[in-house]
Every structure is written in structure tokens, then in C-alpha cells.
Amino acid sequence: MGVGVGDICAGRSAERKRQKNAAAGLVFMIMFLVSAVLSVTCPGMFGAIGAAEVSAAGTVPEFDGWVQDDAGLLSAKEEDALEKECARVSEVHGMGVYIVTTPDFGGGDIKNWQRQIFTGYGLGADCADSGVMLAISMAARDWGLVGFGEAQGAFTTYGRERMGELILDDLSDGEFYDAFTRYVSMADDYLTAYEEGKPYTEDRHYGEGWRIPLIIGISFLLSLTVSLTIVLTWKKSMNTRVRRDGALEYMREGSFHLSNRTDRFLYHTVSRSKRQKESSSGSAGSGMRSDRSGTSGKF
Predict the structure, then answer these.
(1) Cα(150)–Cα(144) distance, rounded to whole angstroms?
(2) Where would you tag: which of 45, 123, 244, 269 has the fewest CB atoms within 10 A of its CB?
(3) HSE of 282, CA atoms in CB hemisphere, 13 A
(4) 175 touches 145 (CB < 8 A)
(5) Residue 23 falls within a domain, yes or no?
(6) pTM for the model
(7) Residue 76: exposure state from Cβ atoms within 10 A (0-12, 13-18, ≥19)
(8) Does a structural domain hold residue 11?
(9) 149: which DSSP letter?
(10) Which of 93, 50, 90 is nearest to 67 (CA)?
(11) Residue 121 belongs to a domain with what CATH number?
């Protein structure tokens, strides 16, 4: 009985398939054994990674869009508005602007968790791996702000800490939508300043440019004008009175007689002022922790 060429090729193909399956099974078995050994000898390794993945978005993380509100801090309308604004700013500047909230990020430094999220989900893929992320964890009331790629030039250490100062009150009061809105607005300003070659640093502060002195000056002039107008109007309505040089001229003659005069001590007043305690300035005094590309703290 003869054997055809097709039968020989089929036999060889089946043999190669069995060999591949056997090799794959061997590799899987080796990986399983290595994982088992590491989980026993280094339990913290897999615990930290697992905590980051689970706390990102429940049991199965699915980061979709620019805003991921796993802690449920926003209404559907608020999340949609922030999603659109983040998309707009990201498109204008070519750098991603992200917001992520979680019930619990798993402990440790929230900045490292953010870096895992950014890398693990491939965020910034459409923006040359550049962007900024604000993260909120409700378990221990942690917040973190981390820049990635080219965006690190826009979000300097001063810039991140300044942003933290300005959104901290809203975060503490539970006004999360207001805090996130201000974050996106400031991110737009930071990126614009960076593109103009003038990022916000210790030498160029945010929110302290020419606009504030101008607004104060205009407000002062308007207040002065209104006050002067009111005083002049009152003065014109009092033109029937004649000014006297002394108080005695207003007293009727013989209407007042002083029969006795004494000095009597009634009471005394003690004023106390609180002594101000010396406090250190900078990020240490404000409870913020900054590294090369990120800043974190409590709210």
C-alpha cells in the first residue's frame, strides 16, 4: 500500500503541532512553578501588583476615556462634562489630561500607583506618552499629581505643589467636581505657558501676574469714585447750617451749672494676643511629598 505526499505532510504537520503544544505546556508549567515559589518567598511582590490592578477599577480594571470615577464621587452629568473638557484640553495641547478616583489604591505611595496605571493601560499612547494625571483615593484620603513624558516640563515641582494648594480646600470639603474643574483649567494654563516657553516655576508664579494688580487697582478706583460722589452729595444737602468754632457756642447761656466734679475708676481692659508659632515653609510644611515628576498629599 503506497503513502502519498499529502499524507506525509499531514503527518509532519500533526507532529509539529504536538511538539508545540508540549513545549507550551512545559513553559506554562515552569511559569506556574516560578510564580508559586515567588508567592511564598516574596508575598509582598504579587500583593502590591494585585492591589494596584484591583483598586484601579474594581476587580477588572477598564480605564475608558479621560476620566475614571471608580469611587463614585461624580454624577453622570459631572463626569460627562469633565470628560469633554479633558478631551478638549488634551486635543489642543497634544498631551493627555486624566482624572482617576478609587475607593482604595492599596497603600504605599499613590504616585507609584499612578505610574503603574499610566503604563499598564497604555495611557498617553495618542499623545506621545505625555500627559498628567490627578488621582484620588478615598480610603486614607490620598491625592496625587504626576506628570509623564514631555508634560513634566509643564508640571514642575512648584507648579504641582501650587495646584495642590489651590484644589486642596475643595477636596477637603467634598467639592470634588469643583476641584477637578479647577485642575483641568489649571492644566490648560500650565500647558499653554509651557508651549510659550514660560512654564510656571519658583521664578514665575502662577496666578500672580499683571492681572491681579490690575483688578485690584480698578476696584480701588471704582470704590473711591463711588464714595467721593456720595460724600459730595451729602455735603451739598447740608448747606443750610453755619459752622461754629467751638462747642460752647451751641450751648444756651445759663443752661448748664457744674456743682461737683470727681474722678471715679470704673473698670480696666486687658488685651491678649495669641503668640504665633513658627512653622516651616515649603512642601514639608504643607504636608506634600514631591519627587522628580510627581506630588502627593492628604486632603
Answers:
(1) 18
(2) 269
(3) 6
(4) no
(5) no
(6) 0.58
(7) exposed
(8) no
(9) G
(10) 90
(11) 3.10.310.50
19 domain residue, yes or no:
no
Q: Report yes or no: 108 and 89 within 8 Å, Cβ to Cβ.
A: no
Q: Is residue 88 part of a domain?
A: yes
183 vs 4, which has greater pLDDT? 183
Q: How far apart are CA 275 and CA 269, in angstroms?
A: 19
pLDDT digits (tens, 9 = 90+) for 176-217: 999 999 999 999 999 999 999 999 988 888 876 555 566 677
Do residues 173 and 163 make contact, with C-beta atoms less than 8 angstroms apart?
no
Q: Print the domain residue range for 66.
A: 56-207+290-298
What is the model's pLDDT at position 62? 64
Task: Supply φ then ψ for residue 271, to 5 degrees.
Answer: -105, 135
**Cα–Cα dist 256/236, whole Å:** 34
Amino acid at 147: G
Closest alpha carbon to 58 in 68, 46, 67, 73: 68
More confident residue, 202 or 75: 75
Domain count, the chain: 1
Is-contact 80 180, C-beta < 8 A?
no
Integer-rounded Cα radius of gyration of the chain: 35
Residue with cell 452729595: 233
**Is the pLDDT reported for residue 266 higher than 90?**
no
Q: What CA–CA distance (Å, rounded) separates 207 from 211?
A: 8
Model confidence at 88: pLDDT above 80? yes
